[in-house]
Hints:
Elements: H1 3-16, E1 21-26, H2 31-42, H3 54-58, H4 60-63, E2 69-76, E3 95-96, H5 105-123, E4 129-132, H6 140-146, E5 151-152, E6 158-159, E7 167-174, H7 193-197, E8 203-205, E9 208-209, H8 215-218, H9 227-233, E10 236-238, H10 242-245, H11 265-268, H12 272-275, H13 280-287, H14 297-311, H15 317-326, H16 330-343, H17 347-359, H18 363-376, H19 383-388
Parallel strand pairs: 3-10
Antiparallel strand pairs: 1-2, 2-7, 4-7, 5-6, 8-9
Helix pairs in contact: 1-5, 14-16, 15-16, 15-17, 16-18, 17-18
Amino acid sequence: MANTQLKNELIAYSKHIGIDKIGFASADPFVTLKSRLEEQQNLEFQSGFEKGTLEERTKPELLLPEAKTIISIALAYPSKLKNPPQSKKGDRRGIFCRASWGEDYHHILRRKLNMLEEFLVNKVPSATSKSMVDTGELSDRAVAERAGIGWSGKNCAIITPEFGSYVYLGEMITTLDLPEDRPIFDQCGSCNKCVDACPTDALVQGGQLDSNKCIAFLTQTKELLPEKYRKKIGNRLYGCDTCQVVCPENKGKNADHHSEMIPDPEVVKPKLLPLLKLSNREFKEKFGGISGSWRGKKPIQRNAIIGLAHYKEIESLPDLYKLMHEDPRPVIRGTAAWAVAEISKNDDVYQQLLKAEQTESVAEVSVEIKNSLQKLGNGFKPLEKEMKNL
């Protein structure tokens, strides 16, 4: 079978199984990418979530001997919530980023890639392949760029003409030699909106990201967050969409044709206070199906506390006191100690912090308590008056 014919049949099959875009690239080494990754490493801009060595991440043949072609796929996801619940005083809500809405995209894309692999095996039994989604060694974005799925935007996302940057990416390395597609050249031009809008200046320049400053990365860490970033996070529980929301290429783009990607508003925009009390089982039952749950409940609960501080939610103080005094996790106690002083400057907060200071044995939490006490100083307001003013 001619390779061009096989490619056309594969394209037709991909549409039949619901893949929005498919592209074909050579499996040659990613020379330019390697130099960029080396620079990222030297600047200490990496997140630590990267998999594989620099060689493995840039030489497909190390992952699949005799690799000839990389097939890139893209599935578009929704950007708008239907009938989103409102966040209001006494009932504040957090938000998961759009890429975490609906069923975990890793599962969705792997199913599609498995179907493509089966199709190829049926056509060419001697062919071998290896697929990956997001957590593999290869850069999804570099592959998609080479395969003509879209161009690499200044926001470090692949931007497609049809769906903007609201697409999930996956790829398959194969030993089949299939005709390549042409890359799409950069179309960002002089636009710099994403770089200017980044809350933490993580987009150092167009197309270069300091992962350690990126809110999407910070919300996934498990430690106490540096204080300078806490107020930047706002009510984000997982991820950040700012650089996508401000992108002109995303204006009016909302792909809601994949039923498994349609989000449950109560899951992706949950109430903050109930989040603090979830058991591991309850967390898994409610959030286990979305990609934003992969780091477990602790980062989400820490971020929920930061969200309550962002809203200055007075009514959350009793719950935060309980966490500060009783939670076995230092990160949660320390974040709660910071949050209560952000929410209110009343004598009750001061006394609760003093009480926590006397019993706290973990140094980093003690620092948070002392810092909060120093911020409060004197001149407290009666708590009852604050509650009446709500």
